[in-house]
Task: inverse folding
């Protein structure tokens, strides 16, 4: 399994975890399968179960998004082409662009500020 090498020649771990979210980064399908098998083994040891419907996979081959399937417990993990997913406040979808997210954050900020402005609190307590 080893590690994934980024643009700068620094060895990065294949798993990134925050709270109850986990992201794996591997370079081949074989590495992905081995890593998922190991994760599944550890999850079973804890008495828990992996639900493939809550997972998403992104497979990029030669710079293009592909529809290659990854399986856990002999069930396919949906790709972001099929079902976009929100993780740590960011949406991952087939276009893999941040421009929609930037616009969504802008709209959410404007909406939130309007709600704050419409409250009955005096001005100095609004922010």
Result:
């Amino acid at each position: 399994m080893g590690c994934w090498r980024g643009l700068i020649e620094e060895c990065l771990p294949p798993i990134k975890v925050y709270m109850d979210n986990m992201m794996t980064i591997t370079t081949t399908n074989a590495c992905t399968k081995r890593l998922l098998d190991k994760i599944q083994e550890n999850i079973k040891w804890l008495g828990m179960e992996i639900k493939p419907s809550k997972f998403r996979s992104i497979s990029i081959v030669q710079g293009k998004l592909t529809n290659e399937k990854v399986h856990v417990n002999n069930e396919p993990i949906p790709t972001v082409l099929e079902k976009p997913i929100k993780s740590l406040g960011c949406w991952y979808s087939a276009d893999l662009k941040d421009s929609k997210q930037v616009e969504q954050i802008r709209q959410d900020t404007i909406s939130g500020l309007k709600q704050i402005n419409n409250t009955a609190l005096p001005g100095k307590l609004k922010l």
Q: What stands out?
A: The chain has two helices and ten strands. Residues 4-96 form one domain. The mean pLDDT is 80.
